[in-house]
Each structure stands twice: as structure tokens, then as C-alpha cells.
Design brief:
By secondary structure, the protein is an alpha/beta fold. The protein has 8 helices and 9 strands. The chain has helices at 20-31, 43-55, 70-84, 106-134, 155-175, 193-199, 203-212, 222-233, and strands spanning 11-15, 35-40, 59-64, 89-92, 137-142, 180-187, 190-191, 220-221, 244-247. Bound molecules: nicotinamide-adenine-dinucleotide.
Length: 253
């Protein structure tokens, strides 16, 4: 199998494509042949990802959208469909960190749930409809090790990511018999803009995570997640349905 053409003729929808894991995955999809609808709330960053893809010889479009709102999420999916004709692979990955405030702030909790959980659900509503019409499709959602353990993340982030894992599994059961595969990925601590935000004032936290990564002893790279997303999206994973895959250097052991 030639991995460089594995996704030729396919269309991928990647959210959070302006940075980190989303950008790495958008690039990897494009390099392996897919046309990529890059979606992000940050317009310049999203356009930069499209430039990077085009410079690498790939095809992509930029869609600027706040996915925490149902209307704009719907418009983003509709725009991807009208620009590219179909969505074969969705990677719902846009996200923000949670709040470590004590006592926790309800407005902030609602925001985290809106972006990290509802954003995935809003997009899936319209992606699933399109894929049912197409008769096939794959969806990978970004959860976190905080989606399978209560001991690593902020309260709101943990709740949102558990929601992503649960919704993905239930959707796999509901739509698996109709040609759609749904899985989620659970990254450990990955070097991206998100961890950069906390690295300075939480150096200690980073050290603890590094120490607890028993296999590598290091943080992961965005490409480690991208590789797993592409595999789960590919026909090679045709029998994998409804899993929440930890990609964490062994952290969750
Ligand atoms: P990142 O900050 O580098 O990228 C997140 C992207 O999402 C940004 O480009 C941002 O503009 C976009 N985004 C944020 N809110 C949005 C909204 N409302 N609508 C559309 N786009 C929005 O972070 P990352 O580390 O690449 O995170 C990607 C995903 O991985 C997130 O869901 C995050 O929770 C998850 N994750 C990250 C880590 C890690 O250690 N980096 C670990 C576990 C899970």
C-alpha cells in the first residue's frame, strides 16, 4: 500500500486546523492525498495552514468558524460540503483548556463545555447527515486522557472530554451499521500551543507528566496524534469502531 496516495480523491474536514494537532493532521491528510477543509476560529492561522498545504503540493480550503455555536458549526459543515462536494473523513478536534480556578467559575465551565463537547456534537449532527447520504464516512473526535480518567485535567475539561468519549462510542453504536465509523483519540500531554500556554506557569506540572510517561519519559508531538487519526480514518481500520484510543506514551497505564 502506498501511504502517499491512501486518501486520494477523499475530502477531510479538520477542525482546530490552525494550530497544533489539527494543523499536523490537516497537513498529513493533504500529503497523503486528501483535499482538506481546514476549519478554525482563528482566520489567519487557518489561512497559514492552507498555505502550508498548498506549498506541499496539496489542496485545501480555509473555513473560519466558531464551532461552539450551533449555527456557525452548521455553516462550516455546509461550506465544506458545497466547496468540496462531500466529507469522507471528519476530525473534530478544536478545543480549549479548562479552568483551574477555585471555586470554579460557571461561565468558564459553560465555555469549555461549549467548545470542547458541544462543538463536536454540533459538527457531527451535519457530518453524520452528509455521511448517511453518501453511504459511508469516518469521524474521529479529539478527547484526551482526561476523557478516560478523572485524575488529570480541570473539572470542566474532564467533563467535556468524558462527554466526547461517550458521545463518540454511542454514535458508533447508532451509526456503525449504516456505514459510518466513529472513534476518538485520547492524547496525553502533547507539545502544542495549548501546552505552551501552561508550560511557563506550570513547569512543575509538565515535569510530573514527563515523569509519568513511562515509555518515552517525554511529551508527545502533534504528529503522533495525526498518525493515529489517519490510521483510524483509513480503510485499514475498517473493523475499529467506537474506541477511545490513548496516545500518551503509556501515561494511562
Ligand atoms: P491548540 O491550541 O494548538 O489548537 C486548538 C485549535 O482550536 C486552535 O487553532 C484554536 O484556534 C481552535 N479553536 C479553539 N476554539 C475554537 C472554536 N470555538 N471554534 C473553532 N476553533 C477553535 O491545541 P492542541 O493541543 O492542538 O489541541 C487540539 C485538541 O487536542 C483539543 O481538543 C485539546 O483539548 C486536545 N488535547 C490536547 C492535548 C495537549 O497536550 N496538547 C492533550 C489532550 C487533548
Amino acid at each position: 500500500m502506498d501511504l502517499n496516495t491512501e486518501f486520494s480523491g477523499r475530502v477531510a474536514f479538520v477542525s482546530g486546523a490552525g494550530s497544533g494537532i489539527g494543523r499536523a493532521t490537516a497537513l498529513m491528510f493533504a500529503v497523503r492525498g486528501a483535499t482538506v477543509a481546514c476549519v478554525d476560529i482563528a482566520g489567519d492561522a487557518c489561512a497559514e495552514t492552507v498555505d502550508m498545504i498548498e506549498q506541499a503540493g496539496g489542496e485545501a480550503s480555509a473555513i473560519v468558524a466558531d464551532l461552539s455555536k450551533p449555527d456557525t458549526a452548521e455553516k462550516a459543515v455546509v461550506q465544506a460540503l458545497s466547496t468540496h462536494g462531500r466529507i469522507d473523513h471528519a476530525f473534530n478536534n478544536a478545543g480549549i483548556t479548562g479552568s483551574h480556578e477555585d471555586p470554579f467559575d460557571l461561565e468558564r465551565v459553560e465555555k469549555t463545555i461549549a467548545v470542547d463537547l458541544m462543538g463536536v456534537i454540533y459538527c457531527m449532527k451535519h457530518q453524520v447527515a452528509a455521511m448517511l447520504e453518501q453511504g459511508r464516512g469516518t469521524i474521529v473526535n479529539t478527547a484526551s486522557i482526561a476523557g478516560i480518567s478523572g485524575s488529570v485535567g480541570a473539572l470542566d475539561y474532564t467533563a467535556a472530554k468524558h462527554g466526547v468519549v461517550g458521545f463518540s462510542g454511542a454514535a458508533a453504536r447508532k451509526y456503525g451499521g449504516r456505514g459510518i465509523r466513529v472513534n476518538s483519540v485520547c492524547p496525553g500531554v502533547i507539545r502544542t500551543g495549548m501546552t505552551g500556554e501552561v508550560e511557563d506557569d506550570a513547569r512543575q506540572l509538565k515535569e510530573i507528566f514527563s515523569r509519568l510517561s513511562p515509555i518515552t519519559g517525554e511529551l508527545g508531538d502533534a504528529e503522533d496524534i495525526a498518525e493515529a487519526v489517519l490510521f483510524l480514518s483509513s480503510d485499514r481500520a475498517k473493523f475499529i469502531q467506537g474506541v477511545a484510543l490513548p496516545i500518551d506514551g503509556g501515561f494511562s497505564i
